Amino acid sequence: MSSAAAASDWVHLTGEERVLWAGMPSLYPAIPTFAIAFVLSIFGVWLFRDGSLPVLPSWLALVLVPFGALVAAWAYLSRWSTRYVFTTKAIYEKRGVLSRTVTQIRFDRIQNTAFEQSIVERTLSYGDIEVYTAGTGGVNLSLRDVPDPKRANALVTTRLGETARAKRPDRSTDERPTV
Questions:
Q1: What is the C-alpha end-to-end distance of the chain, expressed in Å?
Q2: What is the mean pLDDT, run by run of 10 residues, along the chain of 179 residues?
Q3: What are phi and psi of 6, to 5 degrees?
Q4: What is the dihedral of CA 120, 124, 152, 112, to 10 degrees?
Q5: DSSP secondary structure string for all residues of the chain
Q6: pTM of the full predicted structure?
Q7: Backbone angles phi and psi of 176, in degrees to 5
């Protein structure tokens, strides 16, 4: 995915800020939903062709076909409309199919991060990243189903180190008291 294209309309970069990473949730967790949608559609066609609905008209079974398609479309759109962007100054998350919610956390506010993967997620190379900010008791941002979360979390950790070093005063110019 192109970083500039992914963040062009909802991430407003400052003069020195640049995109380090951009991504969207993995489609692997949606596979069961796609399978259920496919089975619903096939089952609707089978019921229509079989005609074994004695109390209902047989065309009613065909309602399962567009319903299955809608379930699959919603699963895809909800993942497609969720975007994650890491810049040199902040982490951004955008969610929403019909509406839009954008969350931004600056690196100078982040206290800690963690990533989590089940055995299935490790096999398929996706997982969750939790972002904790200073002054709060819990998770402030949960990035779900991030592709290669170990690499993405390492990028955040590296950037946090750089931010911490930039905030520290230069020790070479400190005046030392004489004894």
A1: 60
A2: 55 89 95 96 86 71 91 94 95 93 92 93 96 79 95 93 80 53
A3: -70, -30
A4: 0
A5: --HHHHHTTT----SS--EEEEE---SGGGHHHHHHHHHHHHHHHHHHHHT--SSS-GGGGGGHHHHHHHHHHHHHHHHHT-EEEEESSEEEEEE-SSS-EEEEEEGGGEEEEEEE--HHHHHHTEEEEEEEETT-SSEEEEEEEEESHHHHHHHHHHHHHHHHHHHSPPGGGPPPPP-
A6: 0.81
A7: -100, 135
Virtual CA dihedral for 90, 95, 99, 104, nearest 10 degrees? -20
- Which amino acid is located at 89 in the chain? K
